[in-house]
């Protein structure tokens, strides 16, 4: 009976310490989640700004190429004829050189990490396969991206390139800085070429008399 007050006091102290420990843990977890959200927001803002700078540079080169193509079409007889000038300009576009090599593709599921893949950039399209032999010998690839309808951004410090195709975002990484600069230039050239090709392409319903009448 004489020890009962001490036992009650000990139980009270233990309960207080447990509650205080739970409160500290909850505060630490919320603080960690808040810092994680802030870090992701800063990374997204930085990536968006770099992508805007990339798209503005590609748009400037695309406008220059478009003005050159229109001047070429206007100087020829097809350009003076009127309606055939756009088709001749589309045919006069010169495709950039084919670019191929190994890059590291980011994968989340089931094997999370960076996996080595063979990439080919040809006529405005971006293909990839597991190996060069699989694409060259078997003619098989695992995916392709239309660069004309994609948004390209990059992170130079980590040598990463992000290609947003609308339905999927493709993340690739280069091993060396020289490869990174080369792939950035080639992707911008192929994207501009494909974009101009889509602009100069006539509508699909032009040959329909109902479409023409409308």
- Biggest sheet strand order reads 4-3-2-1-7-6-5
Number of E-state strands: 7
- Uncertain stretches of 5 or more adjacent residues: 65-91, 205-214
CATH hierarchy class name of the domain at 99-199? Mainly Beta
Structural class of the helices, strands and pairings? alpha+beta
CA(first)-CA(last) distance: 101 Å
Give the DSSP E fraction (strand runs of 2 or more residues): 15-25%
Mean pLDDT: 75
Q: Strand count, sense and closure of the main sheet?
A: 7 strands, antiparallel
GO biological process, one term: lipid transport
Region (Disordered): 38-72
Biased composition (Low complexity): 54-72
Pfam families: PH_8
Task: Sum this structure up briefly.
This protein has helices spanning 4-75, 77-81, 85-92, 132-136, 177-200, 209-213, and strands at 99-107, 113-122, 125-129, 143-146, 151-155, 160-164, 169-173. It has 214 residues and is α+β, with helices and mostly antiparallel strands. Strands 4-3-2-1-7-6-5 form a 7-stranded antiparallel sheet.
Helix/strand layout:
Blueprint: H1 4-75, H2 77-81, H3 85-92, E1 99-107, E2 113-122, E3 125-129, H4 132-136, E4 143-146, E5 151-155, E6 160-164, E7 169-173, H5 177-200, H6 209-213
Antiparallel strand pairs: 1-2, 1-7, 2-3, 3-4, 5-6, 6-7
Helix pairs in contact: 1-3, 1-5
């Amino acid at each position: 009976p004489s020890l009962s007050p001490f036992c009650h006091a000990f139980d009270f102290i233990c309960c207080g310490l447990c509650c205080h420990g739970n409160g500290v843990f909850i505060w630490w977890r919320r603080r960690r989640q808040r810092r994680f959200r802030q870090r992701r927001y800063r990374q997204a803002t930085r990536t968006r700004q770099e992508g805007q700078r990339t798209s503005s540079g590609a748009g400037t080169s695309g406008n220059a190429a478009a003005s050159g193509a229109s001047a070429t079409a206007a100087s020829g007889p097809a350009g003076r004829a009127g309606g055939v000038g756009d088709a001749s300009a589309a045919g006069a576009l010169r495709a950039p050189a084919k670019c191929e090599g190994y890059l590291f593709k980011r994968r989340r599921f089931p094997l999370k990490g960076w996996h080595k893949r063979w990439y080919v950039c040809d006529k405005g399209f971006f293909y990839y396969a597991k190996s060069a032999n699989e694409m060259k010998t078997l003619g098989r690839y695992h995916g392709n991206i239309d660069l004309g309808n994609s948004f390209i951004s990059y992170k130079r410090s980590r040598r990463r390139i992000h290609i947003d195709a609308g339905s999927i975002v493709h993340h690739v990484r280069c091993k060396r800085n020289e490869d990174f600069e080369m792939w950035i230039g080639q992707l911008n050239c192929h994207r501009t070429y494909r974009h101009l090709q889509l602009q100069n392409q006539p509508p699909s319903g032009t040959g329909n008399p109902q479409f023409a009448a409308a």
